[in-house]
Amino acid sequence: MTALPPIADIADEYALLDSEDRYRLLIDLGRMLEPMPDALKTDATQVRGCSASVWLYPTRLEDGRLHFLADSNAAITKGIIALVLAAVQDRPAPEVASTDIAAALEPFELARELSSNRTQGVPNMIALVRETAQRLA
To answer: What is d(CA 61, CA 56) in angstroms, rounded to the nearest whole number?
Structure first.
């Protein structure tokens, strides 16, 4: 599995693309996510409020950095998850807790590019990442 590129690099590429290619980029980002074992896809790891099924499972690396496993049954949604994680993946918990993920996603104008059904769960994904980081910081 390839590590996600930095969110700033993704934003630079995204800005150069038309809508159709932006969808492709999101789908490609979703494919870059590390596979999440089915055993971790439970009620406890499911993100509420998403139109698609979304699961998010935090792990802590030996050096205290947070690493998230995530998955969705929808390709575009999986790409959105990848964007969220690109902003925080493998960073120390205090840094993740203080990261303004919503601001990091602003250059992508997801509300303009995607249907409200696709983006309605994004605040819940962000909240879950931040709450997890605050608890583990």
So the answer is: 16
What pLDDT is attached to residue 80?
93
Domain with residues 7-136, CATH architecture: Alpha-Beta Complex (3.90)
The count of other CB atoms within 10 Å of the CB of residue 65 is 16
Active site residues: 50
CA distance from start to end of the chain: 27
- Cα distance between residue 55 and residue 78, in whole Å: 10
Alpha carbon dihedral 68, 15, 13, 84, in 10-degree steps, equals: 0
Strand, coil or helix: 120: coil
Model pTM score: 0.90
CA dist 85 and 128 (Å) reads 12
Name the DSSP class of 68: E
